[in-house]
Write a structure and sequence with these properties.
This protein is of the alpha+beta class. Helices cover 28% and strands 25% of the residues. 22% of the residues are buried.
């Protein structure tokens, strides 16, 4: 990882969150919805280079039984430098202290990012379980 990357545990501003998601190839999000949702994160990690948001990840959930890892994103020009691993290491450290015995931690993995998550102990749920979602348009 670059030495001059700053790590924070504050969620990003809504506008930069939406922009990084799009740059990283994730789905678009509404800015107003992001303003409502981001402060409700259980945990957030942001990576900045000279003040610019270049990576992020969050954990959402109830803080007891259920945790969901979301928004793992790294700006394309900074990918391949271990930043995704750094984000997941920060998230794993949080989960290791916050998640009680029996807690369920989930995520939806896009291929090939599934290989990153496997390095942090995540396993495929199929065929016993499959990921499902409902998207409001």
């Amino acid at each position: 990882m670059k030495q001059d990357v700053t790590i924070s545990h504050e969620p990003p501003a809504a506008e930069e969150y939406v922009n990084l998601r799009l740059k990283a190839g994730l789905s678009g999000k509404d800015v107003e919805a992001s303003r409502r949702g981001l402060p409700n994160s259980l945990f957030a990690v942001t990576l900045r280079l000279e003040g610019e948001l270049i990576g992020m990840g969050r954990v959402i959930g109830d803080g007891g039984c259920m945790f969901h890892v979301v928004d793992i994103a790294v700006s394309p020009k900074h990918q391949g430098q271990g930043l995704g691993k750094r984000i997941m290491a920060e998230i794993t450290a949080y989960l290791d202290q916050a998640a009680s015995k029996g807690a369920y931690v989930s995520l939806m993995a896009d291929v090939p990012a599934d290989r990153l998550y496997q390095q942090f102990g995540f396993e495929y749920g199929a065929p016993a379980s499959v990921g499902m979602y409902k998207k409001y348009n």
